[in-house]
## 1
Amino acid sequence: MKAVITGSSTGIGLEMAKICLSQGMEVWMTGTRSERPNENSELFGLCPYLAVDLSTKEGQEAFLDWLGPEPIDVFVNNAGYGIWKDVVDTDPDSMEAMIRLNVEALTRFSREMAIRMKAQGYGRILNVASTAAFLPGPHMAAYYASKAYVLSFSDALSWELRGTGVTVTTLCPGPTRSRFFERAGMAAMPLLDGPWMPIMTAHSVAKAGINATLRGKRRAIPGIMNFLSSKAPIFMPRSIQLGTLNWLQGSK
Ligand SMILES: NC(=O)c1ccc[n+]([C@@H]2O[C@H](COP(=O)([O-])OP(=O)(O)OC[C@H]3O[C@@H](n4cnc5c(N)ncnc54)[C@H](OP(=O)(O)O)[C@@H]3O)[C@@H](O)[C@H]2O)c1
């Protein structure tokens, strides 16, 4: 089996790559940095690796060219990041680059893989969203909205592909130990400091995602608190959701 995982130079994607390798899959990896993951170098020496910025059209095309026409069994749209700033304080180019990665690249690769996997009669697509997909997120507004898009798009695509042998799984992690917080510029805040949302390891999140994907499940929400927060819209009015997220993600 061949697995391609975007954003696998570190964090959740790197853990997914390790899990797929341990299951005997051929793994193709990407990141933005030219250096390859240095831990387990003898293992990752076997994996093709592309350093590419997938937030650009040129990067997306270079990536698809690099993949070539060979069959892919498992494709993971994991590359993504957030920006922790109010909308009015965010540089518009940075915000658009994030949306191009989280939304545009994921949409383009999902479509491409759906076509290819449908033709081969088998395939597993895993799209990484977030518990942010279920709620509006003051101070990270565009990131939360991008993940709501990922969930909605992936759910609908999974339905369109019923009966084709191709499944689409959406992974919705909550706070997870990785470079995400540093990359987003997140500082001390109740969300990361309090007991409300336990921070999971990248390995346990990756394992839940890969397991659900191989079983063809539509959704994976690892962790009980994350599962409960995905249900918040059912019992919390929108204004309470906004107030709670505003507090959780506000500076201390
Ligand atoms: N950590 C969390 O709390 C959390 C919670 C919910 C959802 N998620 C989602 O989980 C996914 C993985 O995040 P993570 O926590 O593992 O974060 P991470 O440690 O920061 O890893 C992000 C990965 O994406 C790659 N990447 C970043 N910008 C890119 C770009 N412009 N083009 C191509 N690749 C790019 C990075 O490559 P380089 O390192 O080489 O730059 C890295 O491999 C993301 O979609 C994120 O939104 C994370």
## 2
Amino acid sequence: MGVGPGDPDLLTVAAVRAIAAADLVAYPVAREGGEGMAATIAAPWIGPQQSRLPLVFPMVAATEPRRQAWLAAADQLAAPVAAGHSVVLLCEGDVSLFATASYVLLALQQHHPDCPVHLLPGISAVAAAAAAGAFPLAMQQEGLLIRPTPESPEALEALLALAAREQWLLGLLKLGHRWAWVRPILEARGLLDQALFAQRVGWPDQLLGAAAAVAAEEQPSFSLLLVRQGWPAVLP
Ligand SMILES: C[S@@+](CC[C@H](N)C(=O)[O-])C[C@H]1O[C@@H](n2cnc3c(N)ncnc32)[C@H](O)[C@@H]1O
């Protein structure tokens, strides 16, 4: 189920009810003993009587440790379900958008096809940032492309040119350390005042505002950018 992002008040009623009804609350952590963002967000809704199951998903580039973690998580979730327990897996933002939960879902479908699974959608960080920044995401014939920030300046230039031509709004995730070279590109294209920079949306230390206000230095990984390069012809 999706939780947050950041703010525990952004859980849906369905998510709060499902947590309350769960025997076991599972959540991703980056390492043994880690806290887990999703668990922190949902903490006000988890009761002391509920068991907790941290699932380790290492933040590494190598393929095999990540595959093993998805398969192990599927096993760890399917076993208590088969024993008759109700289990929820928390996921920050929406459960289907660049989400660890999607890999776990595929592993469950492949290796535990009899395990019943219900997905509860959440509020994506892009939607939360747009609302917090009063930033219209897409209108009329515009498109919306949500994707990781390109890996190189050349790839970003090409994406911005394509998005301008196609009237696409861009939601660029995983901005973090790339911001140092992304900012000068936006500046050269005159986009700094129209782009919304959003960091840790919904958390107490949220940073949100025009990209122009954010210095060109590395930023924490939980940052994203909304880029609008034009407006529809018919507006109030
Ligand atoms: C693996 S994706 C998870 C997306 C998530 N499932 C969603 O629906 O928003 C992680 C990226 O989403 C963005 N993100 C997630 N939570 C965020 C937040 N609270 N504030 C800003 N960006 C966030 C960041 O760009 C981060 O690198």
